[in-house]
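We emphasize that the prediction below concerns an isolated chain of 233 residues; any contacts that depend on oligomerization or on bound cofactors are therefore not represented. The input was used exactly as deposited, without trimming of termini.
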Amino acid sequence: MTIACVVALSVAAAMIAGCDKVENAGRKAARKTGDLVGKGVAEFASGVGEGVKNVTDGSLPDVMTAITTRKSVRQFDPLRTVDDALVEKLLRAAMAAPTAVDRRPWEFIVVRDEAKLKALGEALPLSRISNGARLAFCVCGSLDNGLPDRAKEYWIQDCAAATENLLLAAHGHGLGAVWTGVWPKEDRIEAARRILEIPEGYAPLCLVPVGYPAENPPVKDKWNPAKVHYDKW
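Result of the prediction step, given as a token string:
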């Protein structure tokens, strides 16, 4: 074996050992901030593995494209359903949202039952669920349930962030979706609570019908530099 090979092997061994130490540190940090969920959490925290690769392998423009081309779709193809694997991907994206004190006050009701979809569409016509949607998400939040004051005050912001993640994930996977408000309208809250049997202590923030688009509305360019202020108003 040549000296160069020995040096290369030594460097590789040192790098592996170093990565193991960093990954272990990342795993400990991940456990401190919440449950360790799914592959890649510790790798992302440590700076090695799938998490960083996914951000640095040229996919960043795709992220920006998804954000800037997302649009509200209100008409859906009633003959096409969204499979369970894709539903889980949307939920995983939603639950990756930022959350105050890492309390994650959100709850998600996945609605596929035709009778419930019909009832929601009739009771909440502005939800657009009657426009061919075979799937809808009701994003709910905890109003209290033992949360510290500084966390329960932000359930709306947390659930809103989760909803936006869900919308972006839907668009990124070729689906259409639209955010339709429930909270704080009392009549809408009560209708959603009754139909979906939402328990006391939780409130529906919004309904998001999701499906394969039956329309192609134009993308709105909302960039307005006049809305930007630097250092002061």
